[in-house]
């Protein structure tokens, strides 16, 4: 693998978990844009958003995406990275975009099983199930527009990685 692989999808779809495993099996580097951004800023996303607002955070997110994009890298993106058309185009042009698609029920179960308090502020102020449903309804078309491949992320991480590897191999053949 030489082109970067961008993993997109909503919170709870497994971008970090799948990304780490995909990087391991493909002997690639792994970067999580949210973690990278927080390390660079020295603050959590919740702190950044509270202090600077969503617009400034989204600008930081775009700068982070461009900074971490490199050959041979698996990149787990923030769930809202697709909101900017510039980011969708950038990822499609610079690498292969994989949408980790999962039903709302799976996303909610995962988020409730391991909440990351303080990591990411609520987007709507509503309960998790309502928020996930609303955000996915708003963003699903954007994830699909950005993606070269859509995979079923409701499976075990190893199975999701197998789907990605298969899709990438088939893309090389055609």
Automatic annotation (TrEMBL):
E.C. number: 2.7.1.71
Cofactor note: Binds 1 Mg(2+) ion per subunit.
Annotated metabolic or biological route of this protein: Metabolic intermediate biosynthesis; chorismate biosynthesis; chorismate from D-erythrose 4-phosphate and phosphoenolpyruvate: step 5/7
Cofactor(s) the protein needs: Mg(2+)
Binding positions for Mg(2+) per the UniProt entry: 16
Residues where substrate binds: 34, 58, 79, 139
Pfam families xrefs: SKI (PF01202)
Catalytic activity annotation: shikimate + ATP = 3-phosphoshikimate + ADP + H(+)
Amino-acid positions noted as binding ATP in the UniProt annotation, renumbered to this chain: 12-17, 120
Main subcellular location: cytoplasm
Subcellular location per the Swiss-Prot or TrEMBL entry: Cytoplasm
One GO cellular component, as annotated: cytosol
Keyword check for Nucleotide-binding: yes
Keyword terms, alphabetized: Amino-acid biosynthesis, Aromatic amino acid biosynthesis, ATP-binding, Cytoplasm, Kinase, Magnesium, Metal-binding, Nucleotide-binding, Transferase
Enzyme class: transferase
Keyword field contains Ribosomal protein: no
Entries under PROSITE patterns matching the protein: SHIKIMATE_KINASE
Function recorded in the entry: Catalyzes the specific phosphorylation of the 3-hydroxyl group of shikimic acid using ATP as a cosubstrate.
Family label: Belongs to the shikimate kinase family.
Known partners and oligomeric status: Monomer.
PANTHER family: SHIKIMATE KINASE (PTHR21087), SHIKIMATE KINASE 2 (PTHR21087:SF21)
Name of the protein: Shikimate kinase 1
Organism: Pseudenterobacter timonensis
Species lineage: Bacteria, Pseudomonadati, Pseudomonadota, Gammaproteobacteria, Enterobacterales
